[in-house]
Amino acid sequence: MAIKWGVMSTANIAKKAVIPGIKQSETGEVYAIASRNLENAKEVANELEVPVAYGSYEELLNDARIDAVYIPLPNHLHKEWAIKAMEAGKHVLCEKPIALDAKEAQEMEAASHRTEVILAEAFMYRYHPRYQMIEEIIQSGEIGDIRSIHSAFTFNNAAAKENVRYRKDWGGGSLYDVGVYPISAARMILKGEPEAATVHAFFSKEHDHVDMMASGILEFDNGIALTFDCGMWAASRNRMEIIGTEGRIELPSAFVSHQDEQDHFYLHTNNGTKEVEVPHVNQYALQADAVGKSIQNGKALPYPADDAVLNMKVLDACLTSAEERRRVEIQGG
Questions:
Q1: Residues with Cβ < 8 Å from 236, sequence gap 6 or more?
Q2: Over the stretch 156-208, which tens digit does the pLDDT of each residue have?
Q3: Domain 3-125, CATH
Q4: pTM metric for this prediction
Q5: pLDDT digits (tens, 9 = 90+) for 239-282
Q6: Which keywords does UniProt give here (predicted)?
Q7: Which of 179, 185, 234, 250 lies in disulfide reach of 266, CB 3.0 to 4.6 Å?
């Protein structure tokens, strides 16, 4: 039986990426969409051929036919509605960052255990097969021992001052919005947790004092570091480089999937440069299938809720470092 998904909000990420992804998945179908404005829900439902539209989130959660919900609400609403969904017996795929801080994430994880439903954080890029290919290259020893990772995720949306990203009390800012990608990627590649964070940021008075640009370093074991920058008022970049003792891996498009040659990555060694071609896939569909197969078969999630808690601990440290202009040690990683 296909997993029936309910979508909680008509946010652009839902309309343009996640709903089409679920529709292309092997395991799921989009059954319902909810908005606080019924006309908005109906409009999107008609546009994307979603059978049911609701004018409130509560109505969606009360629909017994729905197995799982996707939550792309503003960050400050993630905890409230994820817990309500889990208490209604729904599995949850929650947009990143999963919460405003690690404490909220821990409450959400506890609710998942209590209600015995799945809670997953929506980092779609992790499901793209190129990361499995990169892991195999690293394990083969072809680039030697990893010495450093550098990543950048920036874009310029500063003119849209009414955007939810520019509400400080709603969890706005570049670290919340795009900084979480380099952070989660380094943790995934290095299979470990950083010990400390140092971040310098530009806080904009024009944008409710959120961080519009941040540059940082995360200290991992064995002297390895992630250096990264993220921004919402800068030229667009979406890159990562993994530097080893014998070579390096370069990803021109590390997180956004274009389904063209930009998805390919490059292996640089003493033998020259090799372009590694990757399959053209919908990483949102693969994300939906990872959750869907876990629901259907009891298969363990590749990245369970405790991973989201650990990622939030790092993000907490980055935000504290940026605000207080100091190095912050990360406890309990």
A1: 154, 155, 156
A2: 999 999 999 999 999 999 999 999 999 999 999 999 999 999 999 999 999 99
A3: 3.40.50.720
A4: 0.96
A5: 999 999 999 999 999 999 876 667 899 999 999 999 999 999 99
A6: Oxidoreductase
A7: 250
